[in-house]
């Protein structure tokens, strides 16, 4: 099967890594909707950088349900989760570890960004995300 190019970053092709048949808990639908509406500042700031294809025409989902978890951002075409870690992750190391293991076992990649960096170092955060995608999804 040929690799499908979904976009280019700096003329380098980025290849699709779609993970099929991800589990979905419909009971979390209202919670995900409430989280989207709540508008955590760092998530809103990040969303404004990536929604409507602003980031290399890559389609991002916000507050996506995967199994029994809701992830901050998800790129279906890449099988990539982006988590913005803020105060809500404090004292939840065991939960976060179990969640991360579950998501990785589905074949997904997880990219973590700190809440403070989104608020205070957005340019570098976006450059680092670009470099991560280049590293993981191109054939340099």
From TrEMBL:
Domain DUF559: 28-130
Source organism, top-level taxon: Bacteria
Xref: SUPFAM superfamilies: Restriction endonuclease-like (SSF52980)
UniProt name for this protein: DUF559 domain-containing protein
Organism per entry: Flavobacterium rakeshii
